[in-house]
Prior knowledge:
The chain is α+β, with helices and mostly antiparallel strands. It has helices at 2-7, 21-35, and strands spanning 40-49, 52-62, 65-76, 79-90.
Amino acid sequence: MAIRLLKVDLSPLRQRRLAQKNDISLIQKAVTAHMKRPDVKIGEIRWFSSSLVMISCSWYTGPLAAASYYYVVEKQQENWELKTYYMLSIS
């Protein structure tokens, strides 16, 4: 599943929220908890469905200390759980 998601052109995916309003904060919380960094910057969320999203995020502390990622998060029952993540860049 994860490899297929990377091959998908993300531009036509929905930027409009397809789930409850509080889901956005729960998605961000799941990603932030996994990254374990105080300087996480959450980017846009792309919705595959109301229970599957891809979210861009990054952290930066200086020119030689930064990274960016895509996270795939899926809703299981009432919780959003990390499925996988992909590092896009690191310095």
